[in-house]
Amino acid sequence: MRGTATTASATGNTWSNWAGNQRATAASVLIPGSVDDVVAAVNAAAAAGQRIKPVGSGHSFTDIARTDARRVDLARLAGLVSIDRPARLVTVRAGTRLRALNELLAEHGLAMPNLGDIDEQTIAGALATGTHGTGAGYGCLSTFVEALTLVTGTGTVLRCSARENPDVFAAARVGLGAVGVLVEVTLRCVDAFVLRAHERPAPLPAVLAELETYVAGNDHFEMYWFPYTDRVQVKTNNRVAADDQPLPRLRGWLDDDFLSNTVFAGVCRLGRAVPRLAPTLSSVSARALTARTYTARSDRVFCTPRRVRFTEMEYGLPRAALPEALAALRKIVDGLPFKVLFPVEIRFTAADDIWLSHGYGRESAYVAVHQYVGMPYEPYFRAFEQVTQALGGRPHWGKLHYRDAASLRPAYPRFDDFLAVRDRLDPGRIFANDYTTRVLGA
């Protein structure tokens, strides 16, 4: 589902996210161009007894960025700060979009080791919510952070890394915007590389039977299950030495623009208008996607900007729980009083040591459920959440979920350690909003 992405919108003090399910009108909007500007904004908010919230590109589905107080737009706090090419370390300002970051890195013969499938987020927003790609050897994007700088709730500019303020580093790499305003990030990159992508339809039972082979045998593996069918689209991406099989321009337009955006949008509109057609449309969609193999620069394989809008919930699960979760999900979909129009995305990541990362301490399988914009979704998402919570699931911080601090604390062994860092860095809770109060407590 590739195409030209549309980001969040803002008119005056009114803001909405990309999906259109979160809206807010701020008392004031600040657009800092420097770290000093951020410090001044934080100090002014604290002096006025008001809350302040940084906002990136609006690609989160939760209310994590909503505020009716002071909103900080990071658009001007973007671009390259420094680069150490021999060490492969790149420092950028926190408002840098991933798409711009990828181009910047390519100019210097570098790349991110892994990416998710959207490149419209700011690096700050992607890190704050635990954005991830897929690949058994890779954690979320926050695992590539070498160091970061943030402005705390007391107006202090604090740099942290594994050696400098290590407790803050463990908390702030996936910080939910609750411990400070991220202003600079140093990323540990790799030499630029090429991926060979292989995409093909397959029967779900056959893929599940060989799941460990798929996960362990490829650099990056994911699949999309089409509801009401036994079909999945399997995607594997593996490093190769040369870009020797580029996708022909016509085939790329046909698959990624026309079929995955224009035609798919029409299918979703038809399914929304005539819900009883949804199972047939899902079956046709599953069989319309034919096999293809091509090579390209890594970020151009990883990232799939989208035009068809949706709402989404995603849960990270212990990898062994995936078959049980999928079996339950199929029963949920079949029993809903409405139809599901979007495929279900399944990805895999390595364990990490970041306190509020969904992958903390365990290898994970991620299951993302979507619904076309304008279609009912809450009963679907709540039913799936009930299943995943019982299996030890952790919700993606930027995707819709209904958990609170009481239910999340047992899921994260270092939850209280995170809260202790927040107490120290934001004692006045000027970075709090309804979302952080719900998921972290007051």
Tally of strands: 21
Neighbour order of strands in the largest sheet: 17-14-16-15-19-20-18-21
Question: What is the count of DSSP helices, taking H or I runs of 4+ residues?
Answer: 14
Radius of gyration: 21 Å
Give the SSE map.
Elements: E1 9-11, E2 14-16, E3 23-25, E4 28-30, H1 35-48, E5 52-55, E6 70-73, E7 80-84, E8 89-93, H2 98-107, E9 110-111, H3 123-128, E10 145-151, E11 157-161, H4 166-172, E12 181-188, E13 190-191, E14 194-203, H5 204-209, H6 211-216, E15 220-225, E16 231-240, H7 249-273, H8 278-288, E17 292-297, H9 298-302, E18 310-318, H10 322-335, E19 344-349, E20 364-372, H11 378-390, E21 394-395, H12 405-408, H13 415-425, H14 434-440
Parallel strand pairs: 4-6, 5-6
Antiparallel strand pairs: 1-2, 2-3, 7-8, 8-12, 9-13, 10-11, 10-12, 14-16, 14-17, 15-16, 15-19, 18-20, 18-21, 19-20
Helix pairs in contact: 4-13, 10-11
Summarize the structure.
This protein is an alpha+beta fold.
Report on this model:
The chain has helices at 35-48, 98-107, 123-128, 166-172, 204-209, 211-216, 249-273, 278-288, 298-302, 322-335, 378-390, 405-408, 415-425, 434-440; strands spanning 9-11, 14-16, 23-25, 28-30, 52-55, 70-73, 80-84, 89-93, 110-111, 145-151, 157-161, 181-188, 190-191, 194-203, 220-225, 231-240, 292-297, 310-318, 344-349, 364-372, 394-395. Helix 4 (166-172) crosses helix 13 (415-425) and helix 10 runs antiparallel to helix 11 (378-390). It has an 8-stranded antiparallel sheet, sandwiched between helices. Strands 7-8-12-10-11 form a 5-stranded antiparallel sheet. It starts with 8 loop residues before the first strand and ends with a helix. 47% of the residues are buried. It is α+β, with helices and mostly antiparallel strands.
